[in-house]
Amino acid sequence: MINRQKIYGLIFDCPERLNNKNCPFVHIRKMESSSKIEILEELTSEEIRQLVKEHEKRQKNGVCQSYEN
């Protein structure tokens, strides 16, 4: 089951407080708030699951440490 609060949190900010250019959510974070929510609502459960999985994989592997300013 998808934790919607976690997803909403990820589209607004990184839990590590980094702006990683490789993060699967970085393009969404750059959008206006209303656009972020629209995009999220259009994604299928599987697409959301994959984004979260990729985010967690990168976080676990330390990829979140290389960030863009």
Q: Which structural class fits the helix and strand makeup?
A: mainly alpha
Report the span from N to C terminus.
34 Å
The description of the largest β-sheet is: none
What share of the residues does DSSP label as strand, in percent?
under 5%
Calculate Rg over CA atoms: 11 Å
What value does the average pLDDT take? 78
Q: How many structurally independent domains?
A: 1
Q: In terms of per-residue confidence, which ranges show pLDDT below 50 for 5 or more consecutive residues?
A: none
Helix content: 55-70%
Shape: globular
Number of helices: 4
Number of DSSP E strands: 0
Plain-language structure description:
The protein is mainly α. It has one domain. It has helices at residues 4-12, 26-29, 33-42, 45-60. The radius of gyration is 11 Å and the shape is globular. The relative contact order is 0.22.
